[in-house]
Design a protein that fits this description.
By secondary structure, the chain is α/β, with parallel strands linked by helices. The protein folds into two domains: 271 residues, TIM Barrel (Alpha-Beta Barrel), CATH 3.20.20; 92 residues, no CATH class. Helices cover 41% and strands 19% of the residues. The protein contains 15 helices and 16 strands. Strands 4-5-6-10-11-12-13-14 form an eight-stranded parallel β-barrel, surrounded by four helices. The chain has a three-stranded antiparallel beta sheet with strand order 1-2-3. Strand 15 and strand 16 form a beta hairpin. Helix 7 runs parallel beside helix 8 and helix 14 runs antiparallel to helix 15. The longest helix has 28 residues. One of its GO terms (molecular function) is metal ion binding.
Length: 380
Amino acid sequence: MEIGAFELKKTEGKARRGAFQTAHGLVQTPVFMNVGTAGAIKGAVDAFDLKELGCQVELSNTYHLHVRPGDAIVKQMGGLHKFMRWDGPMLTDSGGFQVFSLASLRKIREEGVTFNSHVDGRKIFMGPEESMRIQSNLGSDIAMAFDECIENPAPYEYVKDSCARTTRWLVRCKEEMARLNSLPDTVNPHQLLFGINQGGTYDDLRVAHMEEIAKLDLPGYAIGGLAVGESTDVMYHILDVVLPHAPEHKPRYLMGVGTPSNIIEGVARGIDFFDCVMPTRNARHGHLFTWDGIMNIHNAKYQTDDRPIEEGCQCPTCRKFSRAYVRHLLKAGEMLSQRLLVQHNLWFYNNLMVKIREALDQGTFAEFRAQYSEKLAKRI
């Protein structure tokens, strides 16, 4: 397969089984991308651990790496793959979400956004071209377009204008990426651009925006601006409305989602790519995902429980340590607790995707969804 090609192998209802080719390898979809914000998974998990945990795609954050250590430094070190020693596919977000969520003082103009760094307060300007240059310096396989992340709910006219601006910015992203990929010293000349669909919770704006950006014939398309406070029913409704208008033979990425149940439901509606900080963040607070539901390792009943977090789990933590021990580490504030708990949750998520792909291969996804979608959301 050529770089940027997406093979739709099989469908079951709206659910899709595919493969997407990048410069650093073939991604089997549906896939969950493991979030390594600043070039590392929070919880002392490195790139070699990710391999062992079944990660296919690592995701890093453009804004955070631009602020620290600086994307020019990452480029000098040979790009982010070489810097963090990850040799598989990698996606970088555009920095747009952080600009709009972290920056309390920001000014949006047609050129881009001026805001203050959350680290040292210095003024930063970021627009489509700047975001593409930073991501080019990082050398990811998939770069996300720079878009405006609006709040839900937002006034209709504002969302409409914002969609139009996001489209204009996307055209600029595409032109700048083509230029950057042609430079002799570019880190990854095969970097691919994904566009982002916006439109808040307005059906007509979502559909119109997807139809508009689909004309640009990009390698992939994301659904942005969801999982930001609206109910899951609203999110699922937007997916039902917009996905029939997404290009069929391009991957579809639901940004920042979500729980195991959200993922199963997203796959059922035709999503191929997912990412979320939930498995790592929840792990660090003692909330663990299992095939019976969500476990809180803080519970006193685990104090002398010598079983693994989940019987039969093949993650490095469950193969070696007991519930009692990891609970003790967490209670004692030991750094090791973070690593062991995060490893379990990431293994669970990556293994969940394996099971989803197997079910799609075998034509049994509907049964899998019926068995696990609700069950995985329950608290044990």
